[in-house]
Design a protein that fits this description.
This protein is an alpha+beta fold. Helices cover 22% and strands 20% of the residues.
């Protein structure tokens, strides 16, 4: 068993999986550590009962909230990380998202890099993750090259909705989706179990399929599953990580390397650095700024459904359209509100998990007559929104959403739009204070070590051979899905590591 590598990557999600793929041809001896196993390909992959009621694939781990109450986070440990269960909506941040933006509740800070710096990596990321879309229709879209793959066609019913949205004066545009060979033999079947379900036929662009799988075909890349990285260990100076302590098969191993990349997700990456405190880093590794774990963001998200009792929704694949007209400013306010996306079909079992006492048959009748949407707004970085760990290493997430006025306005506008589309009733559900789906911001990057944890290439200011590549580095959350930006930054950091070599 090797215990010394050139590079250890901790985590196999959007950041770690992409890094492994990008560096596989470097000749370096690379070890990828994943705390979970492979998600099995099985019938239950597409079972709402198994995924949403039995929580078959959910991490069996409890966190505590700001009040000390225990809750089950929406997170998954396995090869591919949470990308195995994402909806594969792969947006670029808008050009304005990299700049300082004023919101009702405060300022969304500027990034230390601009859109033009990331644009070529967005191009590469879209090719690597098979992103389908159409440029030129979204009024907020920055200048770009055409998408590498054509947009997913709207169903007949969704095409009618798109035309009705245009008649309302809106600018609907195709959702950018990472799907592999949709509609082709052995490709994506455009089914109704994409959001929150693993793909049984491996046709969704997740980081196992697009990153880890191709990477481990190279003899110099090794993957360890069911391997939990508990601590990072530094040399006597505290300036370099010497090894990672790994719990695997009942043993505790120390794995050494020249360089380390942490890609555990914003919550777990912060927790790992906090657990790695030592005499040189008493408040947590790389925490001279005091910001490790702080500034947690997760988006304000409300699931919405337009319901009409007399119109059965025959659409199978529904999530093909977005509305960004209110992304930069509202209809009667100069402040940004956010974006609206069509969503995958809600299944009766999924709805029943919210209100269990309603009979399943009633939910089946209801969801068959509904069209599902998501209203999503940016929340702002606040130091009091933070990740900490207790003496036993258990994660505590203190999170209070902000920018609520803007989100309420977006939900109100979405409700008006759906009523104008002819829906009789609009249903709403929000994650509130336990939202962990779009987690970001806990290890912010920047040029000043006093006000950031990472530099603009995601290396820690305090520890010279330690990088963090996941949504931890985000200074702001923007109001689009973070996945593509994580992938693009992973490619950028990988280029930098190659140049260092």
């Amino acid at each position: 068993m090797n215990t010394r590598y050139d590079l250890v990557i901790i985590g196999s999600g959007a950041g770690g999986g992409t890094m492994a793929h990008a560096l596989a041809t470097s000749g370096r001896r690379i070890l990828v550590l994943e705390r979970g196993g492979f998600v099995p390909r099985e019938e239950e992959n597409w079972s709402p009962e198994a995924v949403w009621k039995q929580l078959r694939y959910r991490a069996d781990e409890r966190w505590t909230d700001a009040h000390g109450e225990v809750f089950l986070p929406y997170t998954h440990y396995g090869v591919g990380g949470n990308t195995k269960f994402w909806g594969s909506v792969l947006y670029r941040l808008r050009r304005e998202d990299f700049q300082e933006v004023e919101h009702v509740d405060g300022i969304s800070p500027a990034w230390p890099i601009d859109y033009d710096t990331v644009a070529p990596y967005y191009d590469r990321a879209e090719r690597l993750y098979h992103v389908h879309g159409q440029h030129g229709l979204d009024p907020t879209e920055p200048h770009r090259e055409p998408f590498p793959y054509a947009p997913i066609p709207h169903s007949r019913a969704m095409a009618e909705i798109v035309e009705n949205l245009r008649r309302q004066g809106l600018h609907p545009s195709p959702l950018p989706l990472g799907l592999i060979r949709p509609g082709e033999e052995n490709g994506c079947r455009l089914c109704n179990t994409c959001n929150s379900f693993p793909c049984r036929i491996e046709a969704k662009s997740d980081s196992e399929i697009c990153g880890i799988g191709p990477a481990v075909q190279h003899a110099n890349v090794e993957l360890w599953t069911n391997s939990f990285a508990s601590r990072l260990l530094t040399d006597a100076s505290g300036r370099r990580v010497e090894a990672v302590e790994v719990e695997r098969d009942g043993e505790v191993l120390r794995i050494g390397a020249s360089e380390f990349v942490v890609s555990c997700g914003a919550v777990n990456s912060a927790a790992l650095l906090l657990r790695s405190a030592n005499d040189r880093h008493r408040d947590g590794l790389a925490n001279s700024s005091g910001l490790v774990g702080k500034r947690y963001m997760a988006h304000l998200a409300t699931m919405m459904q337009g319901f009409h009792p007399l119109k059965k929704n025959e659409t199978v694949f529904q999530k093909t359209v977005a509305i960004n007209d209110f992304y930069l400013r509202g209809p009667d306010t100069p402040y940004p509100l956010g974006q609206i996306q069509s969503q995958g079909r809600t299944h009766a079992v999924m709805a029943q998990t919210v209100v269990p006492w309603v009979p399943l048959g009633a939910y089946e009748w209801w969801v068959a007559r509904g069209v599902d949407w998501l209203a999503m707004s940016e929340d702002l970085p606040r130091a009091e929104n933070r990740v900490t760990v207790d003496s036993a290493g258990r994660i505590r997430l203190q999170y209070q959403p902000n920018n609520l006025w803007a989100h309420r306005r977006l939900v109100k506008e979405t409700t008006r739009i759906l009523h104008r589309l002819g829906f009789w009733k609009v249903m709403k559900h929000s994650h509130h204070m336990k939202n962990t789906t779009h987690q970001c911001g806990t290890l912010v990057f920047g040029s000043d070590p006093r006000t950031s944890v990472l530099d603009p290439l995601c290396r820690t200011h305090d520890v010279e051979n330690l990088f963090v590549v996941d949504a931890s580095f985000f200074p702001s959350s923007a109001a689009v899905n973070p996945g593509l930006t994580i992938i693009a930054q992973a490619l950028r950091v990988a280029d930098h590591i190659m140049e260092m070599q």
